[in-house]
């Protein structure tokens, strides 16, 4: 299949391209598009054939449900039932934006879209290209992240083309994703609202809006082991870099000296990478040192994480050391993704 590629400026969106893309969705085809979190791989959410195509293009198990993207709050009443006042409060404060909510689904949403579940995940993205595409489609767009299953989520049009060229109808490139990690998922079908996946919208921000909210025990445990997570996508083997990834946690000086020592004593022939910060990147003499951003700016670290992991894969690095990023705000989400990528290998140093 030939994949049509268009680069768009989100401040001056070419209406002819959006019209063409909307037409592709209406006839059951697939369009990858930018969102503020990561790129999505979109198809008509109410068309079970389109959902089937999404799973095939990603090489993803079809019991892993898709997020349905909407462009106005009224759409909620058409695809979900039992919408609580708490959900409306969250929608009012965080939509459009990087928050996904789980509801009981309406009958019109096919089980192919929800991976066989009676619930549906819904999000209104903030990216203007995404919103224009949803409107042009005349409906709702089911979209997982636009990566091949097992690869990091794409944060640029280039990443999407690496994974999807030849597999889907169209790619809309809107530049770099502003957040760079997938949306926060909160389950409102539970008695106590439950965060199934941490993201830019933190537990504290949600609690400020609707009161007591908890993490799915699997997220907390994820920093350890066990307990099946409720978001089916969180249970699959997650992205793991081709090289072995080890996280090193502790005081900065101890971390730097531990990693330096590992580099100095590494086996002949290993290609070593380091995920370092603006503050530390000049202290390492590894083959590949990636400056992921300032340790003082977690949002910058979040934005760069998936690009850095993809770069290491492209360069066939065999062993990667990463500093840890424990702090406030989005660092819960950063560590959630990093720990999965490392297969839980964390070394504490002091
Ligand atoms: O930021 C995002 O959410 C991006 C952009 C494109 O919007 N999308 C995204 O989709 O990350 P995906 O498919 O890569 O991850 C969706 C996650 C999976 O872990 C899936 O299991 C979970 O959401 N999910 C979807 N529907 C669900 C449901 N009804 N109940 C529980 N978990 C659900
Ligand atoms: Mg994904």
* H/E series: EHEEHEHEHEEHEHEEEHEHEHEEHEHE
The CATH architecture category of the largest domain equals Alpha-Beta Complex
Span between N and C termini?
A: 54 Å
Q: What count of structural domains?
A: 2
Class from helix and strand fractions: alpha/beta
Largest β-sheet summary: 12 strands, mixed
Which ligands appear in the coordinates?
threonylcarbamoyladenylate, magnesium ion
Q: Mean pLDDT, as a whole number? A: 94
Name the beta content range.
15-25%
Fold and architecture overview:
- The protein has 350 residues and is of the alpha/beta class.
- The chain has two domains: 4-215, Alpha-Beta Complex (DHBP synthase), CATH 3.90.870.10; 244-348, Rossmann fold (3-Layer(aba) Sandwich), CATH 3.40.50.
- It contains eleven helices and 17 strands.
- The chain has helices at 15-26, 48-58, 75-79, 85-94, 128-137, 157-164, 203-210, 217-222, 252-264, 298-314, 331-341; strands at 4-7, 31-33, 40-44, 67-69, 80-81, 99-105, 119-123, 141-142, 170-173, 184-187, 194-197, 214-215, 244-249, 272-276, 288-291, 319-323, 346-348.
- Strand 11 (194-197), helix 7 (203-210) and strand 12 form a beta-alpha-beta unit.
- Helix 1 (15-26) packs across helix 5 (128-137) and helix 10 (298-314) runs parallel beside helix 11 (331-341).
- The model has no long low-confidence stretch (mean pLDDT 94).
């Amino acid at each position: 299949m030939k994949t049509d590629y268009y680069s768009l400026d989100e401040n001056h969106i070419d209406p002819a391209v959006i019209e063409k893309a909307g037409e592709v969705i209406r006839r059951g085809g697939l369009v990858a598009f930018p969102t503020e979190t990561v790129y999505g791989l979109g198809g008509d959410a109410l068309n079970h054939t389109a959902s089937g195509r999404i799973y095939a293009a990603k090489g993803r198990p079809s019991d892993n449900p898709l997020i349905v993207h909407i462009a106005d709050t009224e759409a909620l009443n058409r695809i979900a039932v039992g919408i609580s006042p708490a959900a409306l409060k969250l929608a009012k404060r965080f939509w459009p934006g990087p928050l996904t909510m789980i509801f009981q689904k309406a009958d019109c949403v096919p089980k192919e879209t929800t991976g066989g579940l009676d619930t549906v995940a819904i999000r209104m993205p903030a990216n203007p290209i995404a919103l224009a595409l949803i409107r042009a489609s005349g409906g709702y767009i089911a979209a997982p992240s636009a990566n091949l299953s097992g690869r990091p989520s794409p944060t640029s049009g280039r990443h999407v083309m690496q994974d999807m060229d030849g597999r889907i109808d169209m790619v809309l490139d809107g530049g770099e994703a502003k957040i760079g990690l997938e949306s926060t998922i909160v389950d409102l079908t539970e008695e106590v609202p439950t965060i199934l996946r941490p993201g830019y919208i933190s537990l504290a921000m949600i609690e400020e809006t609707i009161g007591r909210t908890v993490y799915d025990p699997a997220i907390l445990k994820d920093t350890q082991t066990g307990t099946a997570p409720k978001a089916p996508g969180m249970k699959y083997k997650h992205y793991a870099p081709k090289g072995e990834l080890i996280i090193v946690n502790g005081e900065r000086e101890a971390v730097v000296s531990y990693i330096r020592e590992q580099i100095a004593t590494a086996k002949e022939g290993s290609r070593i990478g380091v995920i370092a910060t603006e503050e530390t990147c000049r202290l390492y003499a590894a083959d590949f040192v990636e400056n992921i951003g300032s340790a003082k700016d977690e949002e910058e670290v979040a934005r760069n994480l998936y690009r850095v992991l993809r770069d290491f894969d492209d360069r066939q690095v065999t062993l990667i050391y990463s500093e840890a990023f424990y702090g406030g705000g989005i660092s819960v989400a950063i560590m959630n993704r990093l720990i999965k990528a490392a297969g839980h290998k964390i070394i504490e140093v002091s």
